[in-house]
Amino acid sequence: METFTTHRLLAERLKFQHLNELNRMHQNQQVMATLGGVRSDEETRLFIFNNLHHWQSYGFGLWVFRDKVNHQFVGRAGLRNTDVGGMNEVELAYALMAKFWGQGLATEMGEKILKIAFEILKLREVVCFTLTTNQASQRVMKKLEFKYEREMIHANLPHLFYRLKI
Ligand SMILES: CC(C)(COP(=O)(O)OP(=O)(O)OC[C@H]1O[C@@H](n2cnc3c(N)ncnc32)[C@H](O)[C@@H]1OP(=O)(O)O)[C@@H](O)C(=O)NCCC(=O)NCCS
User: Fold this and answer.
1) Which residue of 19, 21, 37, 151 is surrounded by the most CB atoms within 10 Å?
2) CATH 3.30.460.10 applies to domain 3-123
3) What is the distance in A from the centroid of ligand 1 to the CA of 137?
4) 140 ligand 1 Cβ < 6 A
5) Contacts of the segment 32-39: beta carbons below 8 A, 24+ positions apart
6) pLDDT in tens, 104-114
7) Taking the complete model, does pTM exceed 0.85, yes or no?
8) Residue with CA at minimum distance from ligand 1 atom 10
9) How confident is the model at residue 155 (pLDDT cuts 50, 70, 90)?
10) 92: closest CA among 105, 72, 76, 104?
């Protein structure tokens, strides 16, 4: 799916042309504090490369989101195949520029992405996990009706792991 809309946002499939916007996000300490820290230009190029490859391999991946009114870059979100404790899972991922936090936008993105996951991609379940300290993300998962499963160590850090089944 190349593009779609939500109530307030436009989504476009990740492209290499999003490098500057993703660099702006990945070099922002506030945003990246819960995502493993800031990333260099080179790391962001690799991030895009890997995520474009993901799209080619699985037919889904990350989208970039913009404000419908003025087309400002809001963030990125989507679905990613990922290894969690030796199991292959499809993860819902989301990150927004800080000025857009607290308006229900991550939840709005998540609702639409989950609809795509279940209704178009015909996935049976999607997982989501976050640092034990990331309360905003945990709240988003709860609003999206994910069910808490367990605590786990991921990237050497304690995370809470949730799953949503249809
Ligand atoms: C986590 C993140 C995506 C949330 O985005 P958002 O658009 O602000 O999320 P929403 O507005 O949809 O929902 C956030 C909820 O968390 C709540 N919240 C925010 N900070 C909180 C805190 N410190 N403690 C408890 N709840 C908190 C908000 O009140 C809101 O709940 P409510 O609607 O019941 O009031 C955003 O903060 C972000 O991009 N953070 C950096 C990247 C990141 O951590 N991504 C997730 C990795 S798993």
Assistant:
1) 21
2) no
3) 5
4) yes
5) 34/130, 34/131, 34/133, 34/134, 34/137, 35/95, 36/155
6) 999 999 999 99
7) yes
8) 104
9) confident
10) 76
